[in-house]
């Protein structure tokens, strides 16, 4: 069985998204860490600019009634205001963004792909928060956007995956979800290239 066949045979949307984006995800993680965002506050400030850009682009997802039907409480999960407060804590100016959010007009399947990426980043944030704490930052000062969800990272991620997997999508719609995840990673990669 070739790789493409084995990926399309995966039974859940979250498993397909993971399989289709794993290499891109690993490359992006490497490029972020190679920029040494936790070596000093100046580098961390550039990292916050990346985060601010990403969360600007995904902010419409957290206001989406379509997504809220599958993800209860989603409107409380957005982290753009946390990133903005982290920047204010460190006396960093917020970037001026003139572009419309990338997710402003995406349909439900693509939105699911974007949400998979941005909510999945919360798992890795556990490690990033440890690095931030070594610089004297915390969930209450400078690293709010890295804070653990109230129910814990692993239980929250399981709930997100379960909700993703409960959405019934046709094969073409699943392809759109994968396209959305790829777009989320590409947008983040572009932000990393610009700011880090």
List keywords for this structure.
single chain, 196 residues, mainly alpha, Heme Oxygenase, Chain A, globular, heme oxygenase (decyclizing) activity
Instruction: Report the total helices.
Output: 8
Average the pLDDT over all residues and give the rounded result: 94
Give helix and strand order, one letter per element, not per position: HHHHHHHH
CATH topology: Heme Oxygenase, Chain A
Describe it.
The model has no long low-confidence stretch (mean pLDDT 94). 64% of the residues lie in helices and 0% in strands. Helix 2 runs parallel beside helix 8, helix 3 (41-58) runs antiparallel to helix 5 (80-89) and helix 3 (41-58) runs antiparallel to helix 6. It is globular and about 45 Å long. With 196 residues, it is an all-alpha fold. The protein has a single domain (35-195), classed as Heme oxygenase-like (Heme Oxygenase, Chain A, Up-down Bundle), CATH 1.20.910. It has helices at residues 3-8, 13-34, 41-58, 65-68, 80-89, 108-134, 153-166, 171-195. It starts with a helix and ends with a helix. The longest helix is centred in the middle third of the chain and has 27 residues, at 108-134. One of its GO terms (molecular function) is heme oxygenase (decyclizing) activity. This is Heme oxygenase. InterPro entries: Haem_Oase-like, Haem_Oase-like_multi-hlx.
């Amino acid at each position: 069985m070739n790789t493409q066949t084995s990926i399309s045979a995966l039974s859940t949307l979250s498993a397909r998204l993971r399989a289709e984006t794993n290499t891109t995800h690993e490359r992006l993680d490497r490029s972020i860490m190679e920029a040494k965002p936790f070596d000093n506050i100046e580098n961390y400030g550039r990292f916050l600019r990346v985060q601010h850009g990403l969360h600007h682009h995904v902010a419409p997802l957290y206001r989406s009634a379509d997504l809220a039907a599958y993800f209860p409480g989603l409107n409380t999960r957005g982290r753009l205001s946390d990133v903005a407060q982290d920047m204010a804590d460190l006396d960093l100016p917020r970037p001026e963004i003139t572009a419309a959010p990338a997710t402003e007009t995406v349909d439900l399947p693509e939105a699911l792909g974007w949400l998979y990426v941005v909510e999945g980043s919360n798992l890795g944030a556990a490690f990033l928060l440890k690095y931030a704490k070594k610089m004297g930052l915390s969930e209450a000062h400078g690293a709010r956007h890295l804070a653990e969800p109230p129910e814990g990272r692993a239980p929250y991620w399981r709930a997100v995956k379960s909700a993703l997997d409960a959405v019934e999508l046709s094969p073409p719609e699943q392809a759109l979800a994968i396209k959305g995840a790829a777009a989320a990673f590409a947008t983040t990669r572009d932000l990393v290239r610009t700011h880090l």
